[in-house]
Structure formats: structure tokens, C-alpha cells
Design brief:
The chain has 67 residues and is mainly alpha-helical. It has one domain. Helices cover 81% and strands 0% of the residues. Helix 1 packs antiparallel against helix 2.
Length: 67
């Protein structure tokens, strides 16, 4: 089974998306100077990044199984 460079790059990109989303989610908290709207936006962006990373991983798994 050969894995192309494109699949490897996609797999790594998905990992980066999940990592950045997790980092944002882990550091998001409501403090002085942080509005509720800004908190909701940060958590929403983090959630979307995690979903996109998972979607990329699913795409890589599907493409790998077809080889």
C-alpha cells in the first residue's frame, strides 16, 4: 500500500486543524475584558476547526482504503 505525499500532507493538515482548535478551546475563558460574544466566537471557531480536521481525517481514511 502506497500513501501519496498529498494524503500525508492532508493527514498532517487535519492534525494541525484539530490541534489549533483544541488549543483555542483550552485557552478560552471569560475574564475581565472578554465579552460573552467574543467567548462564543472563539469557542465556535475552535469547534469548526475541530470538525474540519475530523473531516480531513475521514477523507484521508476513505482515500487510503480505496488504494
Amino acid at each position: 500500500m502506497t500513501v501519496t505525499l498529498k494524503l500525508i500532507a492532508s493527514w498532517i493538515f487535519g492534525g494541525i486543524l484539530v490541534s489549533v482548535g483544541s488549543w483555542i478551546m483550552g485557552h478560552a475563558e471569560v475574564n475581565a475584558g472578554v465579552s460573552g460574544v467574543a467567548y462564543v466566537i472563539a469557542v465556535s471557531v475552535a469547534f469548526i476547526l475541530i470538525l474540519l480536521g475530523g473531516l480531513v481525517w475521514i477523507s484521508v481514511a476513505t482515500a487510503t482504503s480505496k488504494h
